Amino acid sequence: MEENANHILPDIREEARRLTTSALDAGLHARLLGGLAIWLRCPSVRSGPFARSYQDMDFAIAKGAGAVFKAFLTSEGYLGDPFFNGLHGDTRLYFQAPDSRWSIDVVIDELTMSHKLDLRGRLDGPLPTLTLADLLLSKLQVWEINRKDLGDALCLLADHGVSDDDADAEAVSLPRLRKLLGGDWGFCHTTERNLGRLGELWAESPLPDASFDVAKQITTIRAAIDEAPKTMAWRMRSRVGERVRWYEVPEEVGH
Amino acid sequence: MATESRPGSRLFVRNSTGLVRSASALDATIFNAVISAPIGSTLAWSIFFTLVAFPGADPVGVLLITLVLNIPVLIMFALLGASMPRVGGDYVWVSRVLTPPLALISNLCMIMGGLLGAAYFAKFFAVFALGPALVAFGTLSTDSQLISWGSSFETNTSWILGASLFMVALVTVILIRGTKATFRWQNWTFLIGMVGMIVAFVCLGFASQHGFFANFNTLNKSFGGGTVQQVIAGAGATHAAPNLGNLNATIPALFSIEGFMMWNFWSVYMSGELKSASNRRRQLSVMFGALAFDVALLCLGALLLFRIAGYNFVYALNAAPHAYAIPSGPFYSFLAALAFNTPILTVIILGCFLFWSLPSMIANTFMPIRSFFAWSFDRLMPEGLARVNERTHSPVTAIVVANLIIAALTIWSVYSNVFQLVLGLIVLAGCLAVVIVGAAAIALPFRRPELYKASPANVKFLGIPVLFIVAPLSIIIFVGLAVVSTRYPALVMNGNSADWWWIPAWFAGLIVGGGLLYYVPKFIRARQGINVSFVYKELPPE
């Protein structure tokens, strides 16, 4: 255990980079998400008004990769929460660094917070994080969104363009946004609300060195959402609207 | 686990994870409804026998009394469940507030209810669902082979055993597939069962007594039986009538009916997976929602049957007179199908009725598995019992162990004459458990003051802590039930008052058994250098 603990780097950001590289090299269907994924992919978040500290790492893995990924994290010196992993292990896993410096949350096949982001088939790309579209959605799906999440989303759109090419790993895939948000009214509603708040944040704190104008990006994304074909379920749910709560409220579970 | 002192490790700093739990309020409400009094199976078997067993029994009146009696009980469980929403339910509360041996006693009582209940519903599927359905389908289609098969499923032990064990195997597979799949199966089979019941209610509501009697007479005569009047006369039921004021009928009927109405708190055992489990309103709503649903529909179902068949004919059918010759028991769904006696309605009513066993078995089996998990985490059971399969992410070992026990109980129920008796004794086990939980509820503000002050249980009514009202009431009600069992030999003494000693012996067995479940592992662990007492100083993880 002492020897394994030495693999863990003192800086969580570098440790996230190290783990994701190791996972990729090992061929694991595991990709980083969350704030550290944004840090890895978006230079704007590393300095400036939206730079921040990180307390944990988040990974998404495919359903069949659970045992292998658990073994991978354990071999890297991380400790699983046996009770939590036993009870919720079909959808979530939880690990901690041995000195409790930080934790690793693992979601399996889908990220379920305020809304459900289906990640099946999306965890084998060439890069160590979720796709940019999924990263953006993972931030914009948060109902109780805070400045940290908005800052992450803003930096993502400041550093990466949007594209109609789903295969473009360095752009936010509009087809992905259309497909997901055209099938889930609640997710779409929350996202549109948060896009509005993102626009306000950009107006308040624009990044002078940004590669892209976030306001224009938001306009393009809104247009894509508007023109996306809507499923029958979407349309029926839209008739109910806000009269029924359309988002989940994640509970804080202690470890 | 946080108190273990292995080097370099297990002292988790109090971090938290944002988690959307997997079970919704609807899942939990259905869970409570099907474990306590699943409408279809309860109407089929659990109510109308009281008419004969306790002449003058008024099941509708008694159901309304149970509604009132369960109010303090459910409030107590809801407050405790919201304060300590943990896998293991009463095991966690009682062990952390009172003492672990008492917790094992109360939990053992509940587990026995769950395991025996699951075995009962496994057998129920063959005898009260599949058999009558095949007989009815055979009668409709004049297919004697179907009638023969149906009769075999109702009376032949090998056939009953095969169908019952098939249900146990099915439940095992479903549980292994995980929590989400489990609740999907529970909800869909409940829905299908309810469709059949609604159709049955509609038939009973719109049919005429004249038409029902005519259909019955024709069918019964085809098997060599008599008319409605002959059935009534043969059972001596001509003057049978409900009389709630007849305490010699009402009180034992109350024991019998409360015996299955008392379990609407069962969702506390899924608190680890229930959304907003720490919310008092959530806990109250899923319990009272299920109670109201069960009582309302059971009353409606009974009244509709009495409307169409008459109290004395229902009495007569349950007395098994010779004049009744149809090779299917006179179960509720069968009678409802007779109201119009049309093929499509019969297929819907009896076909949907087949789905009542499964959700009840799932709910009954769920609790023991979670208890084994909680015990294992506290080191009272081997850690392997809580081991989660890497492929299915479910506690396969615990699931298989629980279902093997259920299979053994099922086999016993098929070949034994005393299984019904044991079902009555399970009510007493439940009484003991509720009394222990009541004691924990009263003790909570004193033994865990900080926990109580910060918890949803810290609520007052007219200046009195609610727990101090509902817990003593619950204790009184269930001690009263236990006393009732000593006064009416038909309940748990097999009709023989000389067998009164079964009751204290049963309680003694539960107490000794629960105690052993704690002290034996404690001793074994002590020899391994592990003091299990430490874990009870704090709540287990969420």
Which short descriptors sum up this protein?
heterodimer, A: 255 residues, alpha/beta, Beta Polymerase, domain 2, 2 domains, five-stranded mixed beta sheet, two-stranded antiparallel ribbon, 45% helix, globular, B: 542 residues, mainly alpha, 23 helices, 3 strands, disordered N terminus
In a nutshell, what does this entry contain?
The complex is a heterodimer of chains A (255) and B (542). Chain A has 255 residues and is α/β, with parallel strands linked by helices.
List the helices and strands and how they pair.
The complex is a heterodimer of chains A (255) and B (542).
Chain A lengths: L1 H4 L6 H14 L4 E4 L1 H7 L14 E6 L4 H10 L3 E2 L1 H7 L3 E5 L6 E6 L1 E3 L3 E3 L13 H9 L6 H13 L2 E2 L8 E2 H8 L3 H20 L9 H14 L4 H9 L10 E4 L1
Parallel strand pairs in A: 2-5, 8-9
Antiparallel strand pairs in A: 1-2, 3-4, 4-5, 6-7
Helix pairs in contact in A: 3-7, 6-7, 7-9, 8-10, 9-10
Chain B lengths: L15 E4 L5 H12 L2 H8 L2 H5 L5 H25 L6 H8 L2 H41 L3 H12 L1 H20 L2 H28 L2 H14 L5 H7 L12 H15 L18 H30 L1 H8 L13 H9 L2 H11 L3 H21 L18 H20 L3 H29 L1 H5 L6 E2 L2 E2 H22 L1 H4 L9 H26 L15
Helix pairs in contact in B: 1-9, 1-13, 1-17, 4-12, 4-13, 4-19, 4-21, 5-6, 5-19, 6-7, 6-8, 6-16, 6-17, 6-18, 6-19, 6-23, 7-8, 8-17, 8-18, 9-15, 9-16, 9-17, 10-15, 11-14, 12-19, 13-14, 15-16, 17-18, 19-21, 19-23
